[in-house]
Amino acid sequence: MSREERDGRISVSPPAGLAEAQAKRRDAGDLMKQDLITCTCVVVVVAITGWVLYIGRPVLVPIAFAIITSYVIYGLAEILRRVPHVGKRIRAGVRYWSAAALILVAAWLATELLLSDTDRMLAVAPKYEATLLALLAKLTALLHLETEASWTAFRRELLAVVNVQALLTSLLGSLSSLMATTLVVFLYTAFFMVEMGRFRRKLSAVMRGKADMEPVIDAINSKIGTYLALKALLGVVLGILSWICMQLVGLEFAPLLAVLIVMLNFVPYAGSLISVAFPALLAALQFGQWNEPIVLLISLSAINFVMGNVLDPWLMAGSLNLSPAVILMSLAAWTAIWGIAGAFLAVPGTVALTIIFSAFSSTRPLALLLTKDDVASPAE
User: Fold this and answer.
1) What does the CA dihedral 313, 314, 319, 324 come to, rounded to 10 degrees?
2) Are the beta carbons of 295 and 149 closer than 8 angstroms?
3) DSSP state, residue 15
4) Of 116, 139, 137, 130, which is closest to residue 165 (Cα–Cα)?
5) 327-377: pLDDT as tens digits
6) CA 213, 96, 313, 302 torsion-angle sign
7) Any idea where the domains of the chain sit in the sequence?
8) Are 77 and 92 in contact (CB under 8 A)?
9) Contact status, residue 280 vs residue 293, Cβ threshold 8 Å
10) Cα separation, 240 vs 259, whole angstroms
11) What is the pTM of this model?
């Protein structure tokens, strides 16, 4: 008789199926805990990154714009290289510095245009303010509200809130700060261009044996550079066509508004709306009637529609692969962190993150969620 039988104990092993089910449950629980830890770490890292970006925006925004400017120069240099019969004969350094000189000349012309229109903007501010009140008076007469007692109080409150001259004075007062920031951006850009080749060699030496980052860097440079360069060229075309429409209508400050439209072309969705609405609003304030604003609204809407839905997708078919919903969410997130500057940096920053995520197997699912590519259903 065995010892277990003498003690009255019987050893019974669990069935094989039950043991296997218990092991699967343990594995599933461990996997769930690991996923929970991973999600928590991701949320913490994202929160810390957002806080650092928000706190450090006085320093980081000029650096980010310098990087974007460097990518525009890179993209323009690549476009120059593709010019038939001539592009490949031009040395790379000549292409890069020619593109940089072109951007510098464009920035100087825009600054000169803004400075030359400063006094004229302040002079017409009272006229625009009076026209605004006249248009509101016509609107209230149309709606039979001109005899209401609230109209006088409403006009008084409107003048207290919407002071066109005060708004223009405040806007022009920040011009010196904007010019200083622009100078810092160009200085950063010059140093980035000088250090471009050295940085690639240093990064390759540091990452040797860990990860092959050169293809990732090349993909980021190619996609973002091409996107920004084409956006800049399309913005110039859009600005010229918009300037022609505004000039035909007789709108004041048409060249300055054309420059603003070129810059707003880098802001997805919201930039097109402002490019149409702002000139139409100024036309209403200048002319005091609705004929010119309506003509301008229709013409600018048609131009933006053709540019945004025909030329833009045709030229950028391979340079941008983001979901429209992701573009809107990134626009909202970057604007909340960096303000107006974030609106300009939303798309390039998201494209860079998508390329980096797609380079590593652990983050490749995130890259798939950011793109507009579809996946086959299980039934297929």
Assistant:
1) 10
2) no
3) P
4) 130
5) 888 888 888 888 888 888 888 888 778 877 776 777 777 777 777 765 544
6) positive
7) 27-116
8) yes
9) yes
10) 9
11) 0.72
